[in-house]
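Hi R.,

Here's the chain you asked about this morning:
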Amino acid sequence: MWTFLPILKSTIWGGDSIAPFKGIKTDKTAIGESWEISGVEGDESVVAAGPDKDMTLTALIDKYGEKLLGKKNFQRFGNRFPLLVKIIDAAQDLSVQVHPDDYMARRLGQANGKTEMWYVLKAKKDARLALGFTRAIGREEFRPLVESGEIENVLRFVPVRKGEAYFIPGRTVHAIGKGMMVAEIQQTSDVTYRLYDYRRKGPDGKERQLHIDLAEEASDLGFTDGRAQEYRPVADIPVCLASSPYFTTNVMHLDMEVMRDYREYDTFVILIATEGKAVVECGEEKVELSAGHSILIPASAMGVTISPDKRFSCLETYIK
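And here is the predicted structure, written out as tokens:
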């Protein structure tokens, strides 16, 4: 099992909640993102402790291969880790954006598209997100709506609450709103097409760059219902939040020791702690996992025991 050093990123819309949530100290300000587990080139996670300390995630895969990823995942992805896990803190609205699906991304020479999901960690009373449109939009409408700012009037804004989950396939226009912090799980990709940014100016005093042509090509302009994923929390049992070819994510709320056996899935597993703390044990290894931190469990793990300290909640994600 491995833990990693967080990659903290200051952003124009970032807040001050990530470091306290993770229980860490940093001189960085306006932290919008903490990349928890990343194989993105130039932003690769580095092992925080243990015999593999200071190794990059790619180097780990080179060393352990299918024992880490699982046989089919290793055949499919090679040494490119297929998921990116982040914590996002929005003190201001993020831009309205869209990501390509696999088909468009590969046509443009990228490895894959970007399907993602959000799990709401914190939300102020008036927090909301944008997810798709309230009505279908004609292609001829897209650019005039964006350029005039009227795009805001057709976006589907959804009020959010702590504990909700949202699944965002590639091609879905979306935006995280101010006053919320989310855990994000996504395909490994850093490709984002920004189509509207409230005429906000960057540090250089100029309006931030938009990618309207690519966004128009990438966007699904149909109606979107924008609802959260339907699920009912059950104590001490994993409950599915999202299941797709790209990842499966469960949520667990634990107040007693739980044994998890992932061998039949033939996949690595990531645990993302969202509340409290627990000891995660696999064989002779023991790791304390607390809110805001993540752990990577190899596909070769024979069984994992999660022992909460009082109440503990986490997300469990993998690729079957």
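One quick note: The radius of gyration is 19 Å.

Cheers,
M.
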